[in-house]
Amino acid sequence: MSDISSLVEARFDPQRHNKYATLMAAGNGYLGIRATHEEGYTTQTRGMFLAGLYHRAGEEEPRELVNLPDVVGMHIEIDGEIVNLLAGKLLSYRRELRFATGELRREAVWESVSGQRYTLLCERFLSRHNNALFCQRISITPHNSECCINIATGIDATQTNAGRQHLDETQVRVFDQQTMQAIYRTRSKDAHVAITCACLVSPRAQVSFSAKNRRLQQHSFCELKPGETLTLDKYCLIERWLDGEVPKEAGQTSLAQLSACMEQGYEALLGASAAVWQAWWRQCRVTVQSATQGDQRALDFALYHLAAMTPVHDERSSIGAKGLTGEGYKGHVFWDTEVFLLPVHLYTQPEIARQLLRYRWLNLAGAHNKAQQNGFAGALFPWESGRTGEEETPAWAAINIRTGLRQKVASALAEHHLVADIAWAVVAYYQATGDDAFMAKEGVELLRETARFWLSRATEVDGALELHDVIGPDEYTEHVNNNAYTNYLACYNVAMARHFSKRFAKPDEAFSSQLDDFLARLRLPQPRPDGVIPQDDTFFSKPTIDLTRYKANAGSQSILLDYSRAEVNEMQILKQADVVMLLYMLPWLYGEPVLRANLAYYEPRTIHDSSLSKAIHGIVAARCHEPEQAYRFWREGCQIDLGDAPHSSDDGIHAAASGAIWLGAVQGFAGVVAMQDELHINPALPKAWTSVAFPCCWRGRKLYLTLTHQQLSVESDGPVMLHVCGKAVEVDGRADFFIPASGSGTSQEGI
Amino acid sequence: MSDISSLVEARFDPQRHNKYATLMAAGNGYLGIRATHEEGYTTQTRGMFLAGLYHRAGEEEPRELVNLPDVVGMHIEIDGEIVNLLAGKLLSYRRELRFATGELRREAVWESVSGQRYTLLCERFLSRHNNALFCQRISITPHNSECCINIATGIDATQTNAGRQHLDETQVRVFDQQTMQAIYRTRSKDAHVAITCACLVSPRAQVSFSAKNRRLQQHSFCELKPGETLTLDKYCLIERWLDGEVPKEAGQTSLAQLSACMEQGYEALLGASAAVWQAWWRQCRVTVQSATQGDQRALDFALYHLAAMTPVHDERSSIGAKGLTGEGYKGHVFWDTEVFLLPVHLYTQPEIARQLLRYRWLNLAGAHNKAQQNGFAGALFPWESGRTGEEETPAWAAINIRTGLRQKVASALAEHHLVADIAWAVVAYYQATGDDAFMAKEGVELLRETARFWLSRATEVDGALELHDVIGPDEYTEHVNNNAYTNYLACYNVAMARHFSKRFAKPDEAFSSQLDDFLARLRLPQPRPDGVIPQDDTFFSKPTIDLTRYKANAGSQSILLDYSRAEVNEMQILKQADVVMLLYMLPWLYGEPVLRANLAYYEPRTIHDSSLSKAIHGIVAARCHEPEQAYRFWREGCQIDLGDAPHSSDDGIHAAASGAIWLGAVQGFAGVVAMQDELHINPALPKAWTSVAFPCCWRGRKLYLTLTHQQLSVESDGPVMLHVCGKAVEVDGRADFFIPASGSGTSQEGI
């Protein structure tokens, strides 16, 4: 594990402050802290977010993930000059996020405006051993002059969500001339946050404290000789009570806890956290040998952020579309979680997949409410969720600045496929784990309540059932009838409800026959003779245009600068391809010819303006035994966050795209795919990859797969049935399989 | 008038960003705009404030002057590099606020990090012709290279008051692909603000608009050849409706108004505003010939800011302790207004003094409420006021960060002298104007209601009346009995109520005899044999300490780093000297020996930690014929904002100290003093001053006084009675008087 990669920022570039603040963010699932610099820059947006801490700043505001008071910022003055790397000369600069340990480390040699040189070293980590603990260390060494250093840092509650503030101070104190503590309450009085922090400075500094304008700060003053180093260690505990009051003794308990941490010291605390990271990497890491620089880093990056964003400590929280790295999408949870993130957990830490489904199950009441309010039965999960299960999608989209009118957000009203996506994930979880207890309680209820929604959602036309006025994943095509993705997934949802009800639910004849009737009558768009499945009833009737120029700017929605949304809706223009997505989700539906036909038809019509698009195209291409095409898509998918675009990650990481990096490697190139309750492995490694190896959980077994172009090695901690290149094999212990060039056969070499 | 001075900032210093943002703030009494730079710096706090627009961000928050959405900021990129004067090289820099016209002009030659040179010229003014109009012009000229320039600017509603946001967006639009308009409502829904703005760019630029995260912006893109200049003119209208709804047609009206402004163009609009400034300077300016550089500038600075802070358009607004230049003191109005600012207006534009008193009169209901709530009768004006007349003093002071306990703010509960200060100002206004109509309606009511308060405030002790548990202006001595300042001023208040009631109020025997009784029995601390008047009953019994080191840091409250407030209270330590202040306020009470005795006794015990302190000491010293001592105090008073301290003006100008610069020149050195209904002139010019000249209004006459060490010249637009160096003279037209060296005599030379 010593070769786990790092993300390096080699240049100090204000245009990329927010990009790297996102990419290098610290996270442990409980807390996320953007990697903003200690010293202030207007080009960086600070951010600290607690999983599940949402608040509505006003009646007409959407509920959003609260951007907490800042603890990262430090105002540093050397001989009266404010340290700012834009000023003076930056003689060297390097910042590195070590994925292996979660350490962020920045080293700079800076010449001040007055011509003095200093080495600045800034280190920090968010503990995975003690979720609430965040530690920073800053060291300053003057090269050739004596100097006086002032550092002011503490807790800055002027932080807002783009101007909106959610917290009131209820207590601000300094204990024993050392420890600062501030307790905050959301303005609705529902939740509380306590931040306790202290700074230790060496050599001994003059210290004072101030509390003004919502900033509680320690001011440290120190004189240094040339070559001498000032070190300031800052220890913070960030705690929250999401429902109700702060226990009376909480403040005192935090002081004691922080004091215990400080006794251990920075290095020991880092060691304890790093040990948790190490164990986790052993459980999850994908190792690749690639001719292309950056592939391993992309995989490490993706898994680092998966760990950072996943609230394993709290089943009432799920994963927002930006994780805990920014204010984007208000921290809300979308279908991305079940379809792009849950599968990663399912094959590495299946208990987390279960927990993510528990989150939905615990929020069934909200889904029932939403269904009822919209005139449907069963469970209609909210398009965007926070912690309560209520629909959190802003009622109104951004104002059309030309007309001055606001547009209703249609997704919450018509993008109903997420109901079936959740059901899909329930089944995927069960198939991969055989967790009867879950299926008997949460699973079957989720399947039946979501199925009940679809029964009520259908419209009868000439005796058949149709799903009208929906939006599929492709949001450039709105309000259509019989969207292929939605209809097939709804069908699957209902079929699985019927299937699992037989074993796990009390018999209910009436409901069963309703399910049967739905399945018998639901219209499923069929492939044309050339294999192409219509995306919806009217799709083929729409004109096409040349999309080359928009595809070149994929992700930027540049088409909307030339055409209105209404105009785009009336052409064969896709943000992402629904049918390709459908074929990815239900791989047993159609064979390779249909996959090829639809990939060939839809890809030229797809701009890939959604960050969910390319990775799925890549996996489907791999399943068509087109590994080079798949690899191109995968590489491009990796660039969504890791590419050069300076601002596309400003408001947070693309969580789903991170998941998709893993999906592409494991489900795409390694070809690991659950075909109902069979685990198939149909590799299609790109030329650039010599090998790929990764752990994989399946039905209670822990497997470790190592794949080259010629061979698959499997290690299993017990007997397990696999389907390698189409042939059923049982593995117990270690087995190597020869991979034929065509990918169409296999021969077992030994066990 | 061509020699009206400028304030120049010769060096770009981030440590002084907020100082100069305050000192160079634009203001027209309606609106104040901090002089922050167009480009962003973390070291500057943006601020735009509308007189009278206060709002409470939450139930437990104090009401504060709302910091409005920002219009000043511009994000400028040249060839992809963000313009930031800290980066690259600043080859020249100069910023100048022209007091004559209110123009702010910044010129810089900047070499970018990539080595290209540019001249940047930024100009702006807030119109005095059209209060709502703010204009900016930015010009960029590349010296030696082609370049691409992007400028993003518009309306940024992420602005907060130290993290607190007061406004909700109700409408955000772009009209005709040119004009941005945003309408905001205070969260309490009481008041509305509309900001309408447009940018004109030459040469022709590519323009687009965005509205995201509470920022409405125009993005302008332009390519320049070397030597070619990009000019962006930004025109903004900032309007408000302080009570109730925005009229339906308001948005359209603003568009039409802005359009009309843009047709006139930047230069013409500046001309119209400058003309108003010019006329105003003729009415108010003090011209000095001084050997000390900066004296004229200090006077121009003071008057500029007096114009900038005074809401002549709205009698429901008064002047906050920081004017409209910052968030300090939450924008609240204190006794500073009546005592330090109103007199300036009284002698230059007496109708404004009348209006400021009307503000108090209109808020009598609040003063009655406060009296009642505190168990008193009559009018107890709030210690801090906003627009409604309610007490706005925060209930709790800053948390004691050592104990964690909050302290009650005592001023609102015991600093009652402001009641008498308001009465004092009413009488001063009447004496200077003879405005019977005002006295008959507002004046006498204010006098009687404030007097009624004092009647109820007194405590009977051995047959005498005493005022117990008060705080005088000296806030380092709290909760004392018979504070000399308070008792004498209360006595004056009641005496004037009695005096003016005779002529202006309906006879009320009972009330009259109550007033008589109060005056007969009120204890007035008498001078000791050496002439020193005790500040309060226990003052002389307290110990003294050496204050040299604290006096050296006057204004910083450094004493509180060594002693607690409670300890300071038990020593003869003054923030400002109450008895000196008393002798300033009621100059007819005691002769020069008593003045000298008290100045000599109290000054060594006074740290001058209040910005109100030095100027008053200076005036009293001048009245003692100690012009050099007076001049030292005056010079030091000028340094409160104009001195070197980098941060003391960060949160706004010291409004009272600005007023005191004028007071020192006119009431101190020129010795103009209203002794009841006589205008006395007893000059005491310092050696450094060759002459001082200023307009002066008295009893309906406009005088212009020119003073040298030897001579006083008076011009009057009609017959007026003056007392020059103790001798009564009548002037009509022009008269010159010889000033004897001792200042004790006079001889008229001719009329």
UniProtKB/TrEMBL annotation, chains A, B:
- Active site annotation, chain numbering: 475
Residues annotated as domain Glycoside hydrolase family 65 N-terminal: 9-237
What keywords is this UniProt entry annotated with?
A: Glycosyltransferase, Hydrolase, Transferase
Source domain of life is: Bacteria
The record's annotation in InterPro entries points to: 6-hairpin_glycosidase_sf, 6hp_glycosidase-like_sf, Gal_mutarotase_sf_dom, GH65_N, Glyco_hydro_65_C, Glyco_hydro_65_M, Glyco_hydro_65_N, Malt_Pase/Glycosyl_Hdrlase
The molecular function terms of the Gene Ontology recorded here are: carbohydrate binding; glycosyltransferase activity; hydrolase activity, hydrolyzing O-glycosyl compounds
Q: Where is the Glycoside hydrolase family 65 central catalytic domain?
A: 300-662
Q: Which GO terms describe its biological process?
A: carbohydrate metabolic process
Where do the Glycoside hydrolase family 65 C-terminal domain residues begin and end?
A: 677-731
Where, if anywhere, are coiled coils annotated?
Answer: none
Record-annotated residues binding substrate?
Answer: 335-336, 575-576
Q: Which family does it belong to?
A: Belongs to the glycosyl hydrolase 65 family.
User: Which PANTHER family does the entry link to?
Assistant: GLYCOSYL HYDROLASE-RELATED, PROTEIN-GLUCOSYLGALACTOSYLHYDROXYLYSINE GLUCOSIDASE
This one is known as Glycosyl hydrolase family 65
Q: Which organism is it from?
A: Franconibacter pulveris
